[in-house]
Design brief:
The complex is a heterodimer of chains A (258) and B (372). Chain A is an alpha/beta fold. Chain A is built from twelve helices and five strands. Chain A has two domains: 7-154, 3-Layer(aba) Sandwich (Rossmann fold); 166-255, no CATH class. In chain A, helix 11 (232-239) packs antiparallel against helix 12 (247-255). Chain A is globular and about 65 Å long. Classes of the chains: A alpha/beta (258), B alpha+beta (372).
Chain lengths: 258, 372
């Protein structure tokens, strides 16, 4: 039997499109990626939209509407391997800030006719609804990590996606620690790497775009931030960001809410 | 011995750098960059951080302007020499698919001749400790040893101690006791600004013979000794190492471990800045077509959760278990494994811990109520 290329599909839930764009941004590698797969469904890239089943499905975006829920259940049925990409899909995204508020209040303010808005009261990751085979973090994701994940699944191996702190990458890059040497509050010690320590490389503290690392101690870091002059409110807003609803960050922001 | 010492000035040091460059060495020395004194390539004496010093405490490092023009008026910064001898990332081998299977191409490592300028005594000891890790008879790491055997080392004896230094406790300084090609002691006093130059090897004598120097007088040598004594007398920290191996072995269940773990971020900064920590991870990568693969080694840490993951699970899931593992290895089981402590008292793990965990204080915390 002739070898059939794996069928790849890319889906979008509630999100900004940035993560699926990362795939198109992978200019040097895109032809190799497309050479290895059959692009069956990727509305952002092609009007050719083939029906499932698919071998690999990439899903961007969080689940925020009843329609998202229906869609993601169908997508799960259609995809052998389901990979979620980006902070929205893996943690609920920046839109999860609404999880602390009454979403109906927002719709009243934003929309002229809020009665037409059908939305859930919380923005949740895809994994809250269906089984996910691999979660690729980041806001946005790192295109090299995305290629690595696709590469790994295409070659039937485990993806090399580290789950340790940003600090290790800072040290691999020989960055001088912004927290110790400049007194800048930095989420790097509790954040999963993936961005190649982008912000500390430019003397900024880490914003936590890749979410909590595998083993966090946010309370100890928050205490140190206060020694550096941050208020509880500052600490709350630092943790309540692109990965606000990821469990360790959610808990720490709530601990500093008062 | 003492009357064989030479004296050079700043220009003489410049000539040493030039002589090394002429011999094909890549000269590495301290430079001011990013708000810290780090180790990087230099081409002359003007690259050195003249007139800069540093202030260090737990979780704090700041460079400060000095009132003099000292070239080595600071202690150790965030970098150590291990990044040159044992680079952060090394390709171990690669393989290419062919019709029958695959061809393995070994990696030859880095062919570079480094001259290290400004190696402190604690750091010389750290290099010797890593020698025992990477070249210990049973096991020799070809990548490490290839770079190691070519290095030229210019030690600098510390004339002041940093806030987190404790080399005196670890018997690793502040005066270099060997393992260098040349050693310098910087003296700044009413009679001028000069360096006492000590030749530690034939290679060192060859380089110093090309440099304009004078014989150091007894007074000048005494002034240098006094300066080193100043460092010795002003250690920022101390560690009581009496029976430390047994103490840690007997106290693996001490309540202090939980207190430390409540503060530890398990971010791995301490292990990255430690000049003796050597743990690595190995990653296999493939290209998209699956025809080319590479095996890479990169620095890893016993604080990373994945590091202690094995088939079937992870045997150090708590931060407490990982901190205890690191400190017990560094100060106790290292002695059984490699014949010496793994700690040289450089203080980096204290300064560069984002929450200021202090290995000297943690040892005391356990010792206070230790089980015999």
């Amino acid at each position: 039997m002739a070898y059939k290329k794996p069928r790849l599909a890319v889906f979008k839930m509630s999100s900004c499109d940035g993560c699926q764009l990362s795939l198109l941004d992978a200019e040097d590698e895109l032809l190799d990626v497309l050479g290895g797969v059959e692009l069956a469904y990727f509305p952002e890239a092609s009007s050719k939209m083939l029906k499932g089943p698919y071998d690999i499905g990439l899903v961007e975006g969080s689940i925020t509407t009843p329609r998202n829920v229906e869609e993601i259940r169908q997508i799960r049925k259609d995809c052998k391997i389901l990979i979620t990409i980006g902070s929205c899909a893996t943690a609920g995204g920046i839109q999860a800030l609404r999880n602390w508020k009454d979403v109906k209040e927002f719709t009243k303010i934003v929309y002229a006719s809020p009665e037409y808005i059908s939305t859930l009261d919380r923005s949740l990751p895809v994994s809250a609804y269906v089984h996910v085979d691999f979660e690729l973090r980041g806001c946005p994701i790192n295109k090299y990590q995305l290629i690595e994940v696709l590469n790994a699944f295409l070659n039937s191996r485990k993806p090399n996606v580290a789950t340790h702190s940003v600090c290790i990458d800072c040290k691999l890059k020989e960055n001088v620690c912004v927290m110790v040497a400049h007194g800048t509050a930095c989420l790097g010690p509790v954040t999963q790497t993936g961005c190649n320590a982008l912000c500390p490389s430019y003397d900024r503290g880490c914003f936590g775009c890749y979410g909590p690392m595998d083993s966090t101690n946010t309370a100890s870091l928050a205490k140190e931030f206060k020694i550096l002059g941050k208020t509880s409110f500052d600490v709350m807003t630092m943790f309540r960001n692109f990965n606000a609803y990821a469990e360790p960050f959610r808990k720490e922001s709530e601990a500093n809410e008062k | 011995m003492a009357n064989e010492m030479k004296k050079i000035d700043k220009n003489g040091l410049g000539s040493i750098i030039s002589a090394l460059l002429e011999k094909g060495y890549k000269v590495i020395g301290p430079v001011l960059n990013g708000g810290a004194i780090i180790y990087d390539e230099i081409t002359g004496v003007n690259d050195l951080p003249e007139g800069w010093g540093d202030k260090q405490e737990a979780a704090t490092y700041r460079v400060v302007k000095r009132s003099d023009k000292a070239l080595f008026g600071y202690v150790v910064g965030p970098h150590s020499w291990k990044k040159f001898l044992y680079p952060q990332k090394t390709k171990l081998w690669e393989a290419e698919k062919n019709n029958k299977g695959f061809d393995i191409k070994p990696s030859n490592g880095t062919a570079v001749k480094y001259a290290f300028l400004g190696v402190r005594s604690c750091e010389l000891n750290a290099i010797q400790i890593q020698d025992r890790v990477f070249n210990n008879g049973m096991f020799a790491d070809t990548f490490y040893n290839k770079i190691r055997k070519e290095i030229f080392t210019i030690a600098v004896n510390c004339t002041q101690a940093g806030g987190t230094c404790f080399c005196v406790s670890m018997d690793t300084g502040p005066k270099a006791k060997g393992g260098y090609d040349l050693a310098l002691t910087e003296v700044i006093n009413e009679s001028g600004h000069y360096f006492i130059l000590d030749e530690g090897s034939e290679k060192g004598r060859e380089i110093s013979s090309k440099v304009l120097s004078s014989e150091a007088s007894q007074d000048e040598i005494s002034a240098a000794d006094k300066a080193v004594k100043n460092a010795e007398d002003n250690m920022g920290r101390k560690m009581n190492t009496d029976g430390i191996k047994e103490m840690l072995y007997n106290n693996h269940d001490h309540p202090a471990w939980a207190l430390i773990a409540a503060r530890c971020l398990s971010c791995a900064n301490c292990t990255m800045v430690c000049p003796t920590c050597f743990c690595a991870n190995v990653d296999d990568t493939t290209d998209l077509t699956g025809s080319h693969t590479e095996r890479w080694r990169r620095w890893d840490s016993c604080f990373a959760l994945d590091y202690s993951k094995v088939a079937g699970g992870n045997f150090r899931t708590s931060i407490k278990a990982r901190y205890r593992q690191w400190m017990t290895h560094k100060l106790a089981s290292w002695i059984d494994q490699f014949g010496s402590s793994g700690c040289v008292g450089c203080g980096r793990c204290i300064s560069w811990c984002p929450v200021g965990i202090d290995i000297t204080k943690e040892v005391e915390l356990i010792r206070e109520t230790a089980k015999a």
